[in-house]
UniProtKB/TrEMBL annotation:
The active site is at T38. SUPFAM superfamilies: Glutaminase/Asparaginase (SSF53774). GO terms for molecular function: asparaginase activity. This is L-asparaginase. Residues 29-226 form the L-asparaginase N-terminal domain. It comes from Nibricoccus aquaticus.
Length: 358
């Protein structure tokens, strides 16, 4: 009896050790979600780098996995297709972004999944990533990726970008950093990254803060982590947002900027206006008086700096003007944050807190 008990104990210990060993060597599970983009496009020839896509020239997610079996050495990778219907024009809409955000939230809640990669067109990738950064509660890595050249292009950047994005998503150290962006071997955060060149491969940069790390050939290295609130700490979870977000538009400031554009937006019923201001974020020309009239009608005004470098500061003069400083956000990201803020409040002090927090 004692011998059988001893053998049973040894068996249980061996089984537990085997399970722990298997767990230790199990590859992470990564899901790729396709939102389309250049990385999901083909052209008529390998040398055609700027005329691609269109009907019948898309790349389905499974084609990526078939072309790039190396990703399976990094993680157990599956892919989902959430591209907009073929022929859709005009880019993203917020209902579409909300639908993707809800799916990302489901994947974030799935304990069997270790990381998520999202492909997107580079034109508005930074905006989509920022929206997810603010609305999806997640601690596991979520990595946005795109390409400047079509998947079919000679020396296309898509395959390596996608491979590196999977590497980041499978890296435990990338957890808790919010939504990330990987292209050209460089890791950036969703808050700060922006597209800086129409065609160059090194287009995505974080002008004010710099990159977070790199996907080098030997390993992923992370040097910096975001301090602003995001994802799991955000107050704007996708499950609690209304079906329609408040209307916010952007106006650019320049010599002799007319006030009638501000008036027209107010008449149209906007709830907020981003003024992409001169210098440190100032309205110009006829905008100055028109903004005051808009504020009297309850429209919230946020200032960003068209210089794309440096912050819009919270000065006594700006507080007197009741224009909310947009920190160092570009206007398109300030717009998204203001739209989300207006779902909760129109109080300027509270909106300022939100811009200081995220």
């Amino acid at each position: 009896m004692r011998k059988h008990t001893r053998l049973r104990s040894l068996f249980l210990i061996s089984a537990a050790f085997a399970a722990l060993t298997a767990s230790a060597f199990a590859k992470p599970k990564v899901v790729i979600v396709s939102m389309g983009g250049t990385i999901a496009s083909k052209a008529s020839s390998r040398m055609n780098l700027n005329n691609y896509g269109g009907k019948g020239n898309g790349v389905a997610p499974q084609e990526w996995l078939d072309f790039l079996p190396e990703v399976q050495e990094v993680a157990t990778v599956t892919a989902e297709d959430m591209r907009q219907p073929e022929g859709t024009v005009g880019g993203d809409t917020f209902p579409y972004l909300a639908r993707v955000a809800k799916r990302l939230q489901e994947l974030a809640n799935d304990q069997s999944i270790d990381g998520i990669v999202v492909t997107h067109g580079t034109n508005t990738l930074a905006e989509a990533a920022w929206f997810m950064h603010l609305t999806v509660s997640v601690k596991k890595p979520v990595v946005f990726v795109g390409s400047q050249r079509p998947w079919s292009g000679l020396s296309g950047d898509g395959p390596m970008n996608l491979y590196n994005a999977v590497r980041i998503a499978a890296t435990p150290e990338a957890a808790g950093m919010g939504v990330l962006h990987m292209m050209n071997d460089t890791l950036n955060g969703a808050r700060d990254v922006t597209k800086t060149s129409a065609y160059r491969l090194e287009t995505f940069k974080s002008p004010n803060t710099g990159p977070l790390g790199y996907a080098d050939s030997d390993k992923v290295v992370i040097y910096n982590k975001p301090l602003r609130k995001h994802t799991s700490e955000s107050e704007f979870n996708i499950s609690k947002l209304p079906a329609t977000l408040p209307s916010v538009e952007i106006l650019y400031a320049y010599t002799e900027s007319p006030g009638y554009l501000v008036d027209a937006l107010v008449d149209h019923g906007v709830k907020g206006i981003i003024i992409d201001g001169t210098g440190a974020g100032s309205p110009a020309g006829g905008q100055v008086d028109a903004v005051k009239k808009a504020q009297e009608k309850g429209v919230v005004i946020v200032a960003t700096a068209r210089t794309r470098s440096g912050r819009v500061q919270d000065t006594p003069r700006r507080r007197e003007s009741k224009i909310v400083p947009g920190d160092d956000l570009p206007p398109e990201k300030a717009r998204i944050l203001l739209m989300l803020a207006l779902t909760k409040t129109t109080d300027l002090t509270e909106i300022q807190r939100i811009f200081d927090t995220y």
